[in-house]
Amino acid sequence: MKNKKTSNYQTKPVKSLAFKVTAETELMKFLIEMLPHKSRTHIKSLLTHKQVFIDGKPVSQFNKSLTIGQEVTIGKGNNRTEVDLPGIKIMYEDKDLIVINKAEGLLSIATENGTDDTAYSLLSKYLKAQHYSNRIFVVHRLDRDTSGVMMYAKSQQVQELLQEAWNTNVTERTYLAIVHGVPEKEKDTISSYLRESKAYKVHSSKVSVPGGEKAVTHYETLMSTADYSLVKVNLETGKKNQIRVHLQDIGHPIIGDKKYGSTLNPIKRLGLHAWVLAFTHPITKKELRFQTELPGKFRKIFPNALKDQDQPKE
Fold this sequence. Notes:
This protein has about 325 residues and is of the alpha+beta class. Helices cover about 15% and strands about 35% of the residues.
């Protein structure tokens, strides 16, 4: 799954039936099981007229293999539109929320003076193409230059449920970072108080300061070269610029992060990627886990990193 800057995703029909794949099977067998009231001839007609979608993309191959976690949608009309989602790969979607893999360089939500497309605006257009009343709600954010997995809610209720119980419902937030040098300790915990200045830069203090919030970051060095290290980072708290500030604190800033101490940018982007997001679905209470691939630019420095984990997990 390569993270391309521009990808076309076909929206699901306004009137449709959606089914989640829970066991590996073939498409025709799955459709017969899900639509027991429909004849084989009718189902074949749906396929012929491209009224069957797998994860939003039309298919006509009756023996198409299905894998666990995919969504099969059966449309009831020809009312389909295409929405361009540059910088976004949809990983999961249901009636309550949507999980994406965001490219670096794309804002999560607009700034005060911003006019560029954002993940929020693109997903809003995507959902409104299905029905004019559909809306999208921000749950959390990634920095513009940070890539990786994040989610949005489809209703204010789900947004509030996720945000109010964030620390309880989110069971894993793992990032990958390429940093300068090799940390002295292979693994450690960084704890400090973070406070944002009027210049929008976050400062770290080992002691409590007015306006400061405690932040805790756990890291582990996965592999190193003479000049750089690939570090796995788990967040215990989720403060603004927390990872970037804490890695600067230990003398190993993230490459490409000029704001927080980096003087090198060998991959022409910020070396920070949101790798894994796991949480309890606020409505269904199911445990969901989403894992992305290591960004291609990261492999310029670590070509063999995580080879045994290349297949993203859900």
